[in-house]
Amino acid sequence: MLRTIIVDDDPIIIRRLKKLLEQSNEVVVVNEFQTGHEYINSINKETHDFAVLDIDLPDLNGIELAKKIHESKPDFPIIFLTGHVDYALESYEVEATDYLLKPIDPSRIHIALEKVKKRLDGTDTVLNRIESMLLSPGKIAIKVEANLLFLEMDQIICIKKDGKMTTILTIESHQNKAKENFYATRDSMKDIHQRLDQNLFIRTHNSYIVNIKWIHEVIPFTSDTYKLKFKHTDEYALLNRTKLSDLIQQVK
């Protein structure tokens, strides 16, 4: 499922577009903004695969907004909304993935989404080449939105299945203090687990992968699960009773 954000100053257009996108059964709209500055201020707080931007925004021209996005995310897919064909042609100057003319033609939604998926697939190919060149022992590469993030395995506390996404919790040193960080990725639990150090990590539950070195306490929770508490965080994971012997064996 693709995740997107819509930026348009017309609430009616937002509602119409959101309905069309979600009717495709391929997209979920995770947030909506009416100004470009609102979107810029929250761009790193919302995990999303592409953005739909109105070109004629009240505070920031959509073309300029796209340029700002591509300064830090050069391959990030953008679909423009516009009521003017001239603007649509101008959108290609910032390597827009596609554009939708107002009023929105429902038949164009599928075409635009196919272009987004091709753009994302192309980005993955480039990132795979980068990963093979830069990945070093003790690290794992995770795709976060359009970016490739290299994480130290030792710093990963646990990995949790979160709906369609996977959330990775790390404890990283910042100014001599331990700091929690959460990273959301579309990488599957199975794929991540296969790339981790099997001596450090164990799949304790359908929804959790745990780094055994960070386990602080094992607490009975329900009739068939335990709760795993970790050092330096209030977050926890679950352990199936059937996995208890595996955990004990791995800790030895």
UniProtKB/TrEMBL annotation:
Which residue range or ranges hold the Response regulatory domain? 3-117
Residue ranges of the HTH LytTR-type domain?
140-252
Which UniProt key words apply to this protein? Phosphoprotein
PROSITE patterns xref list: HTH_LYTTR (PS50930), RESPONSE_REGULATORY (PS50110)
Question: What GO terms are given for molecular function?
Answer: DNA binding; phosphorelay response regulator activity
What Gene3D superfamilies would the database entry show? 3.40.50.2300, LytTr DNA-binding domain
> Does the keyword Phosphoprotein feature in the UniProt annotation?
yes
Positions carrying 4-aspartylphosphate are D54
Name of the protein in its database record? Response regulator of the LytR/AlgR family
